[in-house]
Amino acid sequence: NDRDVAIVQAKQDGIVERAARRAVGDIVQRGDLLVELRAPEWTAALSEYAVLRSQPDTDLAAASRRRLSMLGTPADAIATVEAGGASPTIFAIRAPIGGAITSLDVRNGMSLAMGAALASINAISPVWLEVSVPQSLAGSLQRGDPVTARIAAFPGEILSGKIEALLPAASASTRTVELRV
């Protein structure tokens, strides 16, 4: 389902301390560890917030807290400081959704620039089938029509779904129209 894709990016410059042992095609659950990184900007901002929280001027502490959010500091790191813990120096970046890893561009020891893509994850439910149907049948099909399919990878199973879209792509050479089920 190309509508449910998460691109995981570095929100600050950093250095990869440890990349989880993952590869393209692996299935991850929401919250699974992708990478642990050292991000000096987050560490400094969290330390500043910890100091300001102990001061009587709550406006400065509130401004510092907003800055942490704007920097993209992980919520669990902020919670650690708010609970009275020390500012973390290593930050866990986790999968924002469950699904299949479709790209993975992070390895131990890498330097990361803010905005660098770390991984791409596609949700695996629902799954789309893109089907070619003869142009002569396309006129009788419409969105919402039920569809059954048999796939060689699952012998004996019948998959069912509904037509989500008749795509505007048609092949002149095969005289087919694409459907998304």
Give structural notes.
By secondary structure, the protein is α+β, with helices and mostly antiparallel strands. Helices cover 22% and strands 34% of the residues. It has four helices and 13 strands. It has helices at residues 40-53, 58-71, 75-82, 135-138; strands spanning 5-9, 14-19, 27-28, 33-38, 91-94, 99-104, 111-112, 117-122, 130-134, 146-149, 159-162, 165-171, 176-180. The strands form four sheets. It has a four-stranded antiparallel sheet with strand order 1-8-6-3, with no helix packed on it. Strands 5-4-2-7 form a four-stranded antiparallel sheet. A hairpin with a 4-residue loop joins strand 12 and strand 13 (176-180). Helix 1 (40-53) runs antiparallel to helix 2 (58-71) and helix 1 packs parallel to helix 3. The mean pLDDT is 92.
Helix content: 10-25%
SSE arrangement, N to C = EEEEHHHEEEEEHEEEE
Terminus-to-terminus distance: 10 Å
Query: How much is the radius of gyration in Å?
Result: 24 Å
The backbone outline, from C-alpha atoms, is: elongated
Percentage of residues in strands? 25-35%
Query: What spatial order of strands do you see in the largest sheet?
Result: 1-8-6-3
Low-confidence stretches: none
**Count of strand segments:** 13
Structural class: alpha+beta
Name the average pLDDT: 92
Largest sheet: number of strands, sense, barrel closure = 4 strands, antiparallel
Number of helices in the DSSP assignment: 4
Short description, anyone?
By secondary structure, this protein is an alpha+beta fold.
